[in-house]
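sorry for the late reply, my laptop died twice this morning and i had to redo everyting from scratch. anyway the thing you sent over, i finally got around to it. pasting the sequence first so we're on the same page, its 156 residues, then the predicted structure underneath. double check i copied it right bc i was rushing
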Amino acid sequence: MEFTTREDIEAPLEQVFAQATDFDQIERQVMRRGIDARRTSEGGAGTARGMSWQATFGFRGKTRTADVTLTEYDPPNALSYRAVSGGLEVVTQIDFVALSRSRTRVGMKIELLPKTLSARLMVQSMKLGKSGIEKRFRVKMAEYAKALEDRLKRAS
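ok and here's the structure:
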């Protein structure tokens, strides 16, 4: 199952990519949402590819664990993450395109790849509510884009 969306941000490509790869800030945001994220590898500018985290979170009444790895780091064009939780693999591709000097389009694609029977059943049940999930996904992406745009305007 796949989800895609894109948002335009009123900011230069390099600034948007820098914000999207501020891993310390992303870790703090994730923790504010109740997810325990712990970096399991080191990385920084130029060495970001291969960075990994272990995240613990609640989902459907159970505590789950996911191993997240940054699989592609192509500044300032693309990022790709791979997360594995139980029998479910989630691949997230984020693309950055400069529309003009001061406008950037961010496209995101999330693909759910079930590897076990229980993961297949979960994805199948999600398909029944796919339109609602897609709507929430697009709203969250729009909120993130707006917050990022506001943050960059304040920094200028």
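The two ends are 39 Å apart (CA to CA).
thats about all i looked at so far, will dig more tmrw
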